[in-house]
Amino acid sequence: MNDFRKQAPDAYEIVAALGQAAAKAGIDRQLLELIKLRASQINGCAYCVQYHILQAESLGIAADKLNLAVVWREAPLFSARERAALAWTEALTLLTQGVSDEVYAQAAAEFSERELAYLSSAIASINVWNRLGVAYRWTPPARKKLATAAAS
User: Are 119 and 92 contacting, i.e. CB atoms less than 8 angstroms apart?
Assistant: First the structure.
């Protein structure tokens, strides 16, 4: 695995700072983990998917919500604000499809202009991390302790 942090410490710090800006600005950390998870799923970054699942779990996000993030449109457990953020994430991650007026209106209805700017910066940051993780084939982080499996 390429150690991007060691090889390009200034670039690493810039991307890390961009990724932290939204939380520092007061955007809910659970919401940020959901959008980072969704972008990582779209981009196929195994490292980032696992990393953000672990982060989300540590923040108390329910396993059902994490498991259903990939099909959030069909799952009734996401709030209007989460749905707007997830739609915005998909639009900014899949830019070749553009950002529809409907998706923008939905996001603007749930987030202030300032919040939307910081949410967009978080989406931009995770997309950068995804590209690095995929390009350098970063190994997904291991779970610190085994989750107990439910009896079937």
Answer: no
* pLDDT tens per residue, range 90-149: 999 999 988 999 999 999 999 999 999 999 999 999 999 999 999 999 999 999 875 555
Task: Return the ∠ at Cα 127 (arms to 125 and 129), rounded to 5°.
Answer: 70
CA 122 to chain CA centroid, Å, is 8
Distance CA 111, CA 118 (A): 10
Is 129 in contact with 121 (CB distance < 8 Å)?
Answer: no
| Pairwise CA distance, residues 51 & 92, whole Å | 21
What gap in Å lies between CA 139 and CA 47, rounded to an integer? 6
Alpha carbons within 13 A on the beta-carbon side of 25: 20
Nearest residue to 92 (alpha-carbon basis) of 124, 114, 45: 124
What global pTM score does this model have? 0.91
Closest CA to 51 of 42, 41, 150, 112: 41
Query: What is the dihedral angle through the alpha carbons of 103, 107, 110, 113, rounded to the nearest 10 degrees?
Result: -150
Q: How many Å apart are CA 37 and CA 122, to the nearest integer?
A: 12
